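Need a sequence for this fold. Nothing fancy.
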């Protein structure tokens, strides 16, 4: 296995509101290795985006705050880094692509102006050299008429073109890690495929590690090496993409995959997990998925399950995979 580029250990980010303390990210742990694409999936409200924003210390303070845990980028703990250090990290060593490029790009400045600013912020180059680099990056991400596009404004470009500009800007400093937060959500299917192909190309040619935040399991299957499944602020399952999509272990992951439309089948109605994502609470007792789980039993409502190692780098936060249950199932298998 390649070296770890990013390692989150027991990361907790809470929001302090009038209605109480909300653990939006609750003891989240996972690793991204060099050249690896890791997908973080889950429904809206599961804590995916807050996790990604926490990595770059972009959580608004107040009301948010990283209360515990570590965010190791290579050998440095970013959770303890000051703002001066984070400014050098953001956009230089770790870049981020946001969900909606129209709100990320400034509408009153040209594409070239914004790209030059991003390049010169991290590289000591002249305005002319920065412009040349901007044009070069736009060509790399497949934007035609790059020399003209640098003089145009965001509103003059399509959604797909704006997203390519965001990728070009993010990659202009050759970052080691690219965080992509729902990069294809607002795009049509054809443009989505082009953006994913571009990200795969960047990953393969530059060995850029990618942390992909998404709710789309089709995107995960297309581009990710490993998957982290989140629910109500916690990691509930993680493992390789192939294993998780083929044999999901946690009931929530099983429900997500069952809800996917099938090309061949007679089902008239798509399956949906009953209920809604539980709002994280600091005083919560029991498994957060239990009220929606068809396999829940008494223990699920009284104890908080931990992440159980179920072999070969896979983990599941479910009492069905606890040490005791695992031993019982092993005994049953042995005797049959």
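Here you go.
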């Amino acid at each position: 296995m390649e070296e770890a580029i990013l390692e989150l250990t027991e990361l907790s980010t809470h929001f302090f509101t009038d209605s109480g303390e909300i653990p939006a990210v609750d003891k989240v742990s996972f690793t991204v290795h060099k050249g690896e694409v890791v997908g973080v999936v889950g429904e809206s409200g599961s804590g995916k985006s807050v996790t990604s924003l926490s990595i770059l210390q972009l959580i608004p303070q107040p009301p948010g705050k990283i209360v515990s845990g570590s965010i190791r980028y290579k050998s440095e703990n970013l959770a303890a880094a000051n703002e001066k250090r984070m400014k050098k990290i953001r956009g230089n060593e770790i870049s981020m692509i946001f969900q909606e490029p129209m709100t990320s790009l400034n509408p009153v400045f040209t594409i070239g102006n914004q790209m030059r600013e991003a390049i010169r912020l991290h590289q000591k180059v002249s305005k002319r050299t920065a412009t040349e680099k901007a044009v070069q990056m736009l060509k790399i991400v497949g934007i035609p008429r790059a020399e003209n596009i640098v003089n145009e404004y965001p509103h003059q470009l399509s959604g797909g073109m704006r997203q390519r500009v965001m990728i070009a800007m993010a990659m202009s400093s050759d970052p080691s890690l690219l965080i992509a937060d729902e990069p294809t959500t607002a795009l049509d299917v054809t443009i989505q495929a082009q953006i994913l192909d571009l990200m795969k190309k960047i990953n393969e040619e530059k060995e850029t590690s990618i942390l992909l935040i998404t709710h789309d399991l089709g995107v995960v299957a297309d581009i990710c090496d490993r998957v982290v499944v989140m629910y109500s602020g916690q990691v509930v399952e993680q493992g390789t993409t192939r294993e998780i999509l083929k044999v999901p272990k946690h009931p929530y992951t099983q429900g997500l995959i069952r809800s996917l439309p099938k090309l061949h089948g007679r089902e008239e109605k798509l399956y949906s997990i009953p209920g809604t994502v539980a709002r994280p609470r600091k005083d919560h007792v029991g498994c957060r998925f239990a009220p929606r789980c068809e396999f829940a039993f008494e223990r699920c409502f009284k104890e908080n399950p931990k992440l159980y190692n179920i072999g070969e780098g896979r983990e599941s936060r479910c009492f069905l995979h606890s040490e005791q249950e695992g031993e019982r199932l092993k005994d049953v298998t042995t005797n049959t």
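For context: The chain has a mean pLDDT of 87.
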